[in-house]
Amino acid sequence: MVGERKSALRILALDDAAAALGLAPETALAEARARYPLLEVAHEDPVADVKLLTAIAESCRRWTPLVSCDVPDGIFLDITGCAHLFGGEMSLAADIRERLTHQGFHVRVAVASTPGAASALARYGPEKILRAGEERKVLAELPLAALRLDAEIVAALARVGLKKIGDIYDLPRAPLAARFSKQLLDQLDRALGLLEEPVSPGIEVAPYMAERPFPEPIALEQDILRVVGCLARQLSLMLERRGEGARRLELTLFRADGAVFTIAAGTSRASREADALAALFAERLDVLRDELDPGFGYDLVRLSVLAAERADPVQADLSGPDEAAELARVLDHIGARLGLSRVVRQQAYDSHLPERAARNVPVDRADGATSTWGTAEPDAPPARPLRLLTPPEPVEAVAVVPDGPPVRFRWRRALHEVTRAEGPERIAHEWWQSDAPTRDYYRVEDKDGRRFWLFREGLFERETAQPRWFLHGTFA
Amino acid sequence: MRKTGFSDAAIPWETPPVSLARLRVLLETLARLGGSKPELAPLPFGLPELDQILGGGLLRGALHEVAPAAAGDATATAGFCAALLARALSGGKKPALWVRHEFATREDGAPYGPGLAAFGLDPGRILFVLAVNVREVLEAMEQALRSGTLAAVLGELRGGSKLDLRATRRLSLAASHGATPGVLLRLGASKKSLGTPVSAATRWRISALASGEAPANSLGAPRFEAGLVRNRRGPAASFSLEWRTHDRTFLLVPALRERLAPAALDRPDPAPTPTKLRASA
């Protein structure tokens, strides 16, 4: 693999066969080609590399939720409190190595009590599991580059003869910091555990999580659903203990070959009913069937609650099934298929502008309306149209007088002869929002009895000389 | 022949003269197997003439198809459906579901809260589902109808040539399972696709009707010409209706011109002679 470094294409990485020929990273491609004209060369693609690294990191979430990428080629796993689940640090490291090697990656695994030390060991040192307190001794033998320093600092240190980490242990700190930047000492302290360095996970960590590994991968949808049902029951118990209900859930399927699928689902109100939660994923899986490729099967299934809310148990009504709960369940089902943001209510909003007077609010976010709807008045036809066109459509209209109602208009190529008209209803833009021209709205009926809501934009002679007409809605 | 869930052994075919008593037993068995539920009172229009030919009103556990008579009557048709929803809502506390189709929103505009309120339909009691394609509209309708938690389910479709007997039968079954009236608002469907049979208890063709007398050349109450082109429980007919928004009732408009219902397109036999109806003015 080659990439442009120091204004020349240079070798960045090579395989075993190329290394056996005596090539090394940093060699200019021209030089290598001169020696071996038949080299197979691929250009670097940093974006694809990051993508691949992220995918690997994603598949590493099977061991711990706290995973972060160390671009370009490392992944940190915070296994605090997780190792015993896999039979100790030793077998956890072996498991990681085995799985990733099987996926075709060249992998080096090191375990240490600080990210700095682990990274140094994985990249430069022996692959081993470092006990707490051993860092100082083991790191002393490693090159200074292992401290994740900038290349210039490493070069500057090398010029004064400092090559190994151990070389700087006993040097006075103040002159070191002054000469080689504070980064050097910070990184050293981090590696030795004198400075805290948290592993920041790229994603939010779920407050509730249940998972089940399979020695023999499962692939059938019904098996997955059965597992989801079991996991939902576990989660339901956990949620009940804390008096909470799930609002957002995520199902993560770890495929045996390292691919990871995540499926999200939401509920319109906090719920901890295992069957209802599992049913959401039945809907999602049904929709996503074509996108999920089980391949050799999934060997780990995890169900996590990403967002939970307080949910107090409700005394069931003796008079019959709880209709509100039933309704919430139906909406969740539809939401699971189409996306919960597409199940909406209309809320009134206090504005004179027709297009701002109503807004769609997803049911799971609907709160108390800020404004109320008017009611129908006796002996008055509706003043607002049943359907509103967004945006208003321009029409060609003819009016007898420039500020009068139209006598005929053409909308979508059809000519409408106006037989009745009511108006104008003058609506001005909110001055603090925009200075668009005033609108004069007319309700009109054509000779077929069809009704329209037209407006003329701009007051004649005061705001514009050529008022334009728009159709904003239609009445029943 | 339709499949039934029992074996032939239960039916005494081998005794040729089937007695009346046996037939009764057979009918009872069939009724039990069919799982027919106690029938809910239909949703009345409040007009004796109309309710009579519908057998009391719109069947609750069934699907009703409503389509504009001409392309320009889309909003009048939506208004007729909104009026049906308003009447379905007035009885109880359940909300209604309006499944919107994105294509219809672009072509005909979106249902507008203040307009619905002014029409006599409380927007606070309507839930909207925003569906992207016909398939999603039908799926959402089916789930909602089946649950029985809604007062009515309205699904609007734009185009929808794929709508066939099978799809609508699913909806009909869901409606009867949940005892919920389902209204299928078909906008922009071609004459041909409206002619294909669907499993609906009633099929309506709606056109706009000019306002009645109103002072100063202003607009009057909404009016429709509602053509009942197919009616499972009675004859086809055509009515001129006026919708009174404040008390949510229909009125029969004294007919300005007499219209006959067009013959049902989805029936091989000629439709029964349409009943001419007129308000006793």
How would you describe the overall organization of this protein?
With 476 residues, chain A is an alpha+beta fold. In chain A, 29% of the residues lie in helices and 28% in strands. Chain A contains twelve helices and 16 strands. In chain A, strands 11-12-13-14-15-16 form a six-stranded antiparallel beta barrel. A four-stranded antiparallel beta sheet of chain A has the order 5-8-6-7, with helices on both faces. In chain A, strand 6 and strand 7 form a beta hairpin. Chain A is elongated and about 95 Å long. The model of chain A has no long low-confidence stretch (mean pLDDT 84). Chain B is an alpha/beta fold and 281 residues long. Helix content of chain B is 30%, strand content 21%. Chain B is built from eight helices and ten strands. Chain B has helices at 20-34, 48-53, 74-90, 102-108, 113-119, 134-147, 165-178, 191-195, and strands at residues 63-68, 96-101, 110-111, 126-131, 153-158, 182-187, 202-208, 223-231, 237-244, 249-252. A nine-stranded mixed beta sheet of chain B has the order 4-2-5-6-1-7-8-9-10, sandwiched between helices. In chain B, strand 9 and strand 10 form a beta hairpin. In chain B, helix 6 (134-147) packs parallel to helix 7. The radius of gyration of chain B is 20 Å and the shape is globular. Mean pLDDT of chain B is 83; it is low at 1-9. Chains A and B meet through helix 12, strand 9, strand 11, strand 13 and strand 14 of A and helix 3, strand 3, helix 5, strand 4 and helix 6 of B. Strand 11 of chain A pairs antiparallel with strand 3 of chain B, so a sheet runs across the interface.
